[in-house]
């Protein structure tokens, strides 16, 4: 597979995003052992940088050895035991996935739903939390299936006040929006590397509050996943350096380099860059007949969900997406679940949150549609 | 992290092994989406090549998105339900890990043990299988904690004859020893990329027989892991191409390149290369006072476990390993579990199964020890 045999893509779907050459070069470095002192230094550096990015002092902050979905599962298998009650906010496919994962643990799931494209109601979540008195409350910060940015603070406060642990999905927000895990009172959150961090998929940055870690120690049944058991993982990423599983060394080299780039740029500038691009994309799409699914106040900048003009629905949206890919090398995402066929999801994440990406896509769409 | 800032290592521990520049370059290629037709072609190619390497026609052959330990968990969570009986052969740390994983699923575990460095007895396994009539029989082909190569066929035949599903750990054997999953009658097996395939850690090549896949469809309870659910994974790696989780694209680029190199070389030559190196290492270590833990007939070529001479035990084996790493850039592995402090595990895996690796280590040891 020579370098020239793969097509070049501008990845404007829901992730992965394009990976910077610095990160690709870091991943291609010669291998180190997972117990090598130099590798463990890099792991320490990654953990420290992730703490700053998540906005937390949590010692238990680490890249889990799986994708974002493994991160979701890690939070739930550690905090839930069979029979535990959980309230889950379902605003799209990823809230739905939370219900599925929690059900498989044997938890009693109470769903609080909201129509696709809208935010969860603080009042409805509070009502469910009061009624159910759950062990865990879980919801999604940046719902990748609808492009909604969920306000976090009120729900998290209500959950904490009711004595619940708070789990937040930050898969699409980490590195694109400022996070304040400690100030918000989040007990467990997970992300993914292939969104606003612009790394390859394969790792799930995650963080757990001290009281979440304590809770895991007080369980009456073992964590059902040995691979994702926080206590065992802590033996490796903590001071003991006890072997658990072999860390994905090269992927962590890549993550370390990405995090250096994020810190060099600074989250303030990075946040502004994502916001500007999201805004410019919507402005450019409106004259072409696309309409945003989400009202402006709750629209994600890095993942814009737009309803398709009738002309595209009639002629087949999948065919047009395929033409963008084949003729122009641009990938955009279709709808998931109930929104399949009626929306597109356009990602401007990390490296791709550039006005040049926005202009490239708009140029091609104007050419194809007018 | 510039290319020059990381130390160069000769990785002669229990994995990861050194990664060939071709594989590192493949991983550094620009990103493709996980639904990109070109990426799906590469995934198809990887699956086909893994089938040849495992010695199977199983359609359900795939790289799982986690390390070898996730592969172990995937086999068990799919084939076992709470209350199911399983017979596990425990010849070292990884058989022990199987017991732990199966227990967390709620299975009734029957252990058949053998002292470290010895193979499981066919008769003892047969006795337990007859007595317990288990749903699953599991054991390890290449026990990475002891360097034992377990004969597979008799145990697998007994298990099949008793109506059990057979799970085999091939973490350290895939790519270094010929495997015959179909001929042996194995229903589920998993490996890892960082051993004899000489890829970075992070993926677990695995394969499941049609009757194993059927069994998963007939479960009365859902697979407890959503992330590792074979039925959902099959929706993506099969013909439907249904999104499940985002595949680790770059890691799969690397695996594809490794598999091309394995096929270019051919397993016959590759097997011979591993065998010769393992033999040469033992021959060279004997005069230095190291003695093989395992008798010649059942000794793994790619992972040689040796008992340490008294002089090294007395002066501290960890200190000598650290000196080999710091002064010569050579990593070797210590003992795990009950063997910690009394053995070394020396890996000659994939790219490192070269007489030059053997000579480099022996040269350094002679210098340090005489």
Give a structural overview.
2 copies of one chain form a homodimer. With 370 residues, chain A is an alpha/beta fold. Chain A has 2 domains: 8-16 and 266-369, Aspartate Aminotransferase, domain 1 (Alpha-Beta Complex); 21-263, 3-Layer(aba) Sandwich (Aspartate Aminotransferase, domain 2), CATH 3.40.640.10. The first copy, chain A, is 43% helix and 16% strand. Chain A has 14 helices and 14 strands. Chain A has helices at residues 21-27, 37-54, 68-79, 93-104, 122-132, 153-161, 181-184, 210-217, 230-237, 249-265, 267-285, 310-315, 317-328, 355-369, and strands at residues 10-12, 61-64, 85-90, 108-113, 136-140, 142-143, 148-149, 165-169, 188-190, 204-208, 291-292, 303-307, 330-334, 343-347. A 7-stranded mixed β-sheet of chain A has the order 2-10-9-8-5-3-4, with helices on both faces. Chain A has a 5-stranded mixed β-sheet with strand order 1-13-14-12-11, covered by helices on one side. Chain A has a two-stranded antiparallel sheet with strand order 6-7. In chain A, helix 2 (37-54) crosses helix 10 and helix 5 runs parallel beside helix 6 (153-161). The longest helix of chain A is centred in the last third of the chain and has 19 residues, at 267-285. The two termini of chain A are 38 Å apart.
